[in-house]
Specification:
Layout (H helix, E strand, L loop, with lengths): L4 H19 L2 H8 L4 H14 L3 E8 L25 E7 H17 L4 H18 L1 E3 L3 E3 L4 H13 L4 H18 L13 E4 L3 H16 L1
Parallel strand pairs: 2-5
Antiparallel strand pairs: 1-2, 3-4
Helix pairs in contact: 2-8, 3-4, 4-7, 4-8, 5-6, 5-7, 6-7, 6-8, 7-8
Length: 219
């Protein structure tokens, strides 16, 4: 799928941002909290960024195309590209924004002694917030600001389980955004007049990606 200049520019600055953070050993602190080796951490980051460009189609929704007015500018803090709609929406799942975060969250759950109750409560808190602040944007899909979720995930993790706040913040933040901003808004997709809706992609990839890094850093 075509990538908007804004997203390409964001991707470029993410690369620069990560390189600088690695040099400053900030990401080292984040990843050490999650118990990853430098090699594993580099592989995870590379796979996440590369996977953000890969959408796996799941199914297609059909609707009668309607004459659409000129779309308004995207709200401040939302990113994306409005594309023409011809009555067909392909529902996909994004590798970097959904499959990899879910897989890594399952890895953390299997390797860290996290009480299931803390995990469920943390995910529910971030899910509720993400659902409340995410917004269906006609011609684009679901978008959300990128700062509220990581702050909420970090605070919830510190309050629920200070000893293992870092992995709890990552799991709560990434899965909460994925569920609240994407899965719970699937019912709105047919009304958005967008040709592609990606679970964990578009505007929510930015939220999921930064949630994972910032939440762990703050926890």
């Amino acid at each position: 799928m075509p990538v908007s200049p804004l997203h390409f520019l964001l991707f470029f600055f993410i690369i620069i941002f990560l390189v600088v953070m690695l040099q400053l050993q900030v990401l080292g602190i984040v990843l050490a909290k999650l118990g990853l080796s430098p090699e594993s951490a580099g592989l995870l980051l590379f796979a996440t960024l590369l996977g953000s460009a890969i959408n796996i189609p799941l199914f297609t929704l059909y609707a009668e195309p309607q004459q659409q007015p000129e779309p308004p500018p995207l709200p401040l803090g939302f990113l994306g590209r409005v594309r023409p709609y011809h009555g067909k929406t392909v529902i996909s799942i994004n590798v970097g924004g959904a499959l990899i975060p879910v897989g890594f969250s399952l890895y953390l759950l299997s390797t860290k002694p996290l009480p299931l109750g803390d995990v469920i409560i943390g995910i529910l808190i971030v899910t509720a917030l993400s659902y409340a602040v995410s917004r269906p944007i006609k011609g684009l899909g679901i978008g959300m600001p990128i700062l509220l979720a990581p702050l909420t995930a970090a605070l919830a993790a510190i309050m629920l389980n200070p000893q293992y706040s870092a992995p709890l913040a990552y799991i709560s933040g990434t899965l909460g955004v994925l569920i609240g901003a994407d899965l719970l808004h699937l019912k709105d997709i047919s009304k958005l007049a967008t040709p592609l809706a990606s679970i964990g992609g578009a505007g929510t990839f930015d939220g999921i990606f930064f949630t994972g890094i910032i939440a762990v850093l703050l926890a």
